[in-house]
Design a protein that fits this description.
Helices cover 15% and strands 32% of the residues. By secondary structure, it is of the alpha+beta class. It has 2 domains: 2-43, no CATH class; 49-110, CPE0013-like (CPE0013-like fold). The strands form 3 sheets. A 5-stranded mixed β-sheet has the order 8-5-6-10-9, with no helix packed on it.
């Protein structure tokens, strides 16, 4: 039996996941918590947020995130892939900043619009 805190919503339900009983989840107050508990033990994923350098904008860093969740084991490598990325303004929310991160089929996209100054 593994105990987890659900991170799907701010409630933070305390979950118990029984690996020996088909990953049965107890303690969730909604179906999303049940799905999270099972997924966290079978195939954990995360949405990755970070920043990249941007030229010609009011701010020097542009916030980005993955377009979908990636395997949790790849998070550090995904962030490292952004280290040398530099974009030029203007950039719009949703623009692809880095395609196909680590061959996952997931892109890093801009989460803020930044005009040129």
């Amino acid at each position: 039996m593994t105990e987890l805190t659900c991170i799907v919503c701010p409630k933070g339900c305390r979950l118990k996941v029984d690996e020996e009983n088909g990953f049965a989840v107890t303690g969730a107050s909604c179906p999303r918590g049940t799905a999270y508990g099972k997924k966290e033990l079978t195939a954990p994923t995360r949405t990755v947020t970070s920043t990249v350098a941007i030229e010609g904008a009011l701010h020097s860093r542009l916030p980005v995130k993955t377009s979908q969740e990636i395997d949790r084991a790849l998070v550090k490598e995904a962030v490292a892939a952004l280290k040398n990325v530099q974009v030029k303004a203007p950039v719009s929310t949703g623009d692809v900043i880095l395609e196909n991160v680590l061959g996952t089929g997931t892109d890093f996209i801009a989460t803020k619009t930044m005009g040129r100054i």
